[in-house]
Q: What sequence folds into this?
C-alpha cells in the first residue's frame, strides 16, 4: 500500500479516467478528481474502462481547484505536476511517499496559475517534435517511478 495520490485536473476523456482509476485500484493510490470534468462520473465509457475495479478506488472529488487546494493545505502534502513544459526528468526527481502527483487535462494541460502552485514539475522526455503522451500512459509512467522510489524500494 502507498500514501501517494494521483490528482487529475479537469479530465476530459472518460476512458482515460476509467483506465487511471483501474490502475489506482490495482496499485493502491488514492485519486483526486478536480472538477469540472468533461463527463459525468457515471459515464459508460468510464465504467467500461474501470470495470469492477472502480468500487475499490479511494476517490475524492473536489468541486474546483480552490477547494482542492484548501483540502491539500490541511494535509501538508506536496504537489508534483507532470508537464510537457517541465525541465526536470521524472526519473531525476526525488518523490516522497505522501506526494500528490498532478496531471493536466487532455485538451489543455493546466493553466499557468496551477503550474506555478506546484512544489515540483516533472517531464517525461520525448522525441523532438512530439507533442505529448496520453494522459493515462503518463500517469502509469510517473506513478510507477514514484512507487519504485518510495514504496517498492
Ligand atoms: C495529453 S496531455 C496534455 C496536452 C496539452 N496539450 C499540453 O500541452 O499540456 C495530458 C497530461 O498528461 C501529462 N503528460 C503528457 N505528456 C507528458 C510528458 N511528456 N511529460 C510530463 N507530463 C506529460 C501532463 O500532465 C499533461 O497535462
A:
Amino acid at each position: 500500500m502507498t500514501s501517494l495520490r494521483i490528482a487529475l485536473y479537469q479530465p476530459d476523456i472518460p476512458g482515460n479516467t476509467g483506465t487511471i482509476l483501474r490502475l489506482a485500484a490495482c496499485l493502491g493510490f488514492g485519486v483526486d478528481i478536480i472538477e469540472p470534468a468533461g463527463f459525468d462520473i457515471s459515464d459508460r465509457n468510464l465504467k467500461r474502462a474501470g470495470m469492477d475495479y472502480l468500487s475499490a478506488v479511494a476517490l475524492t472529488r473536489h468541486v474546483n481547484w480552490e477547494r482542492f487546494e484548501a483540502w491539500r493545505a490541511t494535509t501538508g502534502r506536496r504537489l508534483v505536476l507532470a508537464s510537457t513544459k517541465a525541465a526536470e526528468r521524472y526519473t531525476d526527481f526525488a518523490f516522497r511517499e505522501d506526494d500528490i502527483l498532478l496531471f493536466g487535462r487532455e485538451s489543455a494541460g493546466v493553466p499557468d496559475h496551477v503550474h506555478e502552485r506546484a512544489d515540483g514539475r516533472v517531464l517525461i522526455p520525448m522525441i523532438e517534435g512530439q507533442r505529448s503522451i496520453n494522459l493515462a500512459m503518463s500517469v502509469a509512467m510517473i506513478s510507477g517511478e514514484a512507487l519504485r522510489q518510495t514504496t517498492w524500494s
The pocket of S-adenosylmethionine is lined by residues 82-84, 103-104, 106, 108-109, 123-124, 126, 132-133, 135, 138 (CB under 6 Å).
